[in-house]
Amino acid sequence: MSREKQQAYQARVFCQAIVQVSLLLGVWLFGPAAGLLVAQTDLPVGNALQEAIDFGQARMVKVIGAGAGRVEGYGTGMIVSPDGLILTSQGVFLDGQQTRVILADGSTHEATVLRRDREVQLALLKIEQATPEYFELSSQPVGEQGDWVVALNNAFKVADKQEPVSVMLGVIALRTAMEARLNERDVAYRGNLVLIDAITSNPGAAGGAVLTLDKRLVGVVGKIINSSETNTRLNYAVPVETVAAFVAGKSKEQEAAVTPTVVRGDLGIRIMELGGRKDPAYIDRVTRGGPAEQAGLKADDLIVSVGGEKIGTVRDYLQVAERLEAGQEVIIVVKRGLELLRLPVIPVEKKESP
Amino acid sequence: MNTELRPCCRRLLMCCGICLLLQILSFSGTAQEISPEDWNRVKAAESQRLDAIRLVEGSVVAIYDFGRQGGGSGVVIDASGIAVTNHHVIMGAGVKGMAGLADGQLYEWDLIGTDPGGDVAIIQLKGKSEFPRSRLADSETVRVGDWALAMGNPFVLTEDQSPTVTLGIVSGVKRFQEGAGQNQLVYGNCIQVDSSINPGNSGGPLFNLSGRVIGINGRGSFLDRGRVNVGLGYAISSNQIKNFLPDLLATKLVEHGTLDANFSDQGGRVVCSTINETSAVAEAGLELGDELLEFESETIESANQFMNLICTLPVGWPATLKVRKSDDSIREITVRLLGLPYAKPGKPPTPKENPKPEERQQLELQQAMYDLLAAEPGAIRLPEVNRHYAKHYLGRMQGWYKAKLGQQTRNLGLTIEDRVLRQGEEVGRCISRLDPTGAVRVEYRPGDGPVEEYLFDGQRFAIRRDGQWKEMTATEAKLSPLLLQAMAMASIQTAEPFARFGEVSLDGGDKALGRPAIRFKSLDPDEDWFYFWINLYDQNSNEAESLVQISADKDCDGKGRGVTFNDWQPHSGWLVAAQRVVVQGLAKQPEMQLQIESATPLTDPSSDWANINALIQEGQR
Question: What is the interface pTM, i.e. ipTM, of the complex?
Answer without folding.
Answer: 0.83
